[in-house]
Amino acid sequence: MAGPNKQIAVSGIQASGNLHIGNYIGAIKQFVELQDKYKMFVFVADLHAITVPQDPEKLQAQTLDAVYTYLACGLDPEKTTIFIQSHVPQHTELGWILNTITPLGELERMTQFKDKAKIDKNSLFDLEQLIRLENAKYKAIERSEGSIKEIKEIKIDITTTLSEILEELKNRGRTTAGLLNYPTLMAADILLYNPDAVPVGEDQLQHLEFARMVARKFNTRFGETFKEPKALIQKEGARIMGLDDPIKKMSKSATSANNYIGILDSEEEIRRKIKIAVTDSGKEIKFYPKTKPAISNLLIIFSQMADIPVPGLEKKYAGKTYAEFKSDLADALVVALSPIQIKYKALTKDSESVLKILRNGADRARDAAALTMHAVRQKVGLLAH
Ligand code: TRP
Description:
The protein is mainly alpha-helical. Helices cover 57% and strands 6% of the residues. It has a three-stranded parallel sheet with strand order 1-2-3. β1 (7-13), α1 (21-34) and β2 form a beta-alpha-beta unit. The mean pLDDT is 91. Tryptophan binds next to β1 and α10. Keywords: Aminoacyl-tRNA synthetase, ATP-binding, Cytoplasm, Ligase, Nucleotide-binding, Protein biosynthesis. It is found in: Cytoplasm.
């Protein structure tokens, strides 16, 4: 176990099946490296997973699968507290309390919420624009009774704005409160353990900033309680891009499985996917993210999987072809992933031990969380039980 003086780090992953090398490089690998330095809490965010419609059986399988993957990648239950979010009821308890001090506007402006709820146009806030247009229309009528054209044009603008607002209202009605309150639960996940650091992917920075804001609000209102943790973002590899489209993030929900290399992909699959991965024009193997996004992405993947700095790779492949580079990259992936896959297989055959790890982890997490909740309940004024 970690010593008492170690700093604390917390992170969660939303298990949605088929974890890929983007997850490995951007998150899991970092967790494994951090577990000697920090006292770590790592959990599978199953309560976050249900903010979008889920298949219950699949959710169970994916939750367990994420744990197998984490353990196979080297997360060590002796060093890190590994657990399932929903096994520690304090997450929802603190989440609720944080909801009561969170302005609705802060939740509504979250990028992930707007994306998922499909209300990214901000058109509800176009009401002012609508009023301006209406005024312009009447002025136009007053001024130039004859100019039908001008009035018609304004009317088209009004109709467009109105239909955008209508669409947004409809989507808003369909959206769930769970999706909206995703960030308060995440803030609770973090603040419960009073961490110094939260290793997250770049896309979660806004949520972390939100957690810091809620911590400040709580402290201001009820007295110093929570630390404001800092984000730990990996400089390189925080964002691995799709193999078939290096402009977009690698994603398990991509339309084609050629977009990603799954941690459990077979050797043949890995070789095939690397072979057909998109490359850039020219033939130099150089890290130029702007002009050579595809090759730069492959360089980062290579660098991270083989632990060779990018400049070293550039030197090694100076004057070599894309094909040679790709063939070696596929080798490096196979070498890095096969021990993980062997360990994964062994773990799935020993699910009893894994469940025991999770029970242990939940026990430890609940102990830590109970301490925080004791203080929080008192500060908020909830009667002791
Ligand atoms: N929202 C995170 C993601 O999608 C997962 C997550 C949930 C998380 N709770 C967290 C990450 C707390 C860090 C800390 O990746």
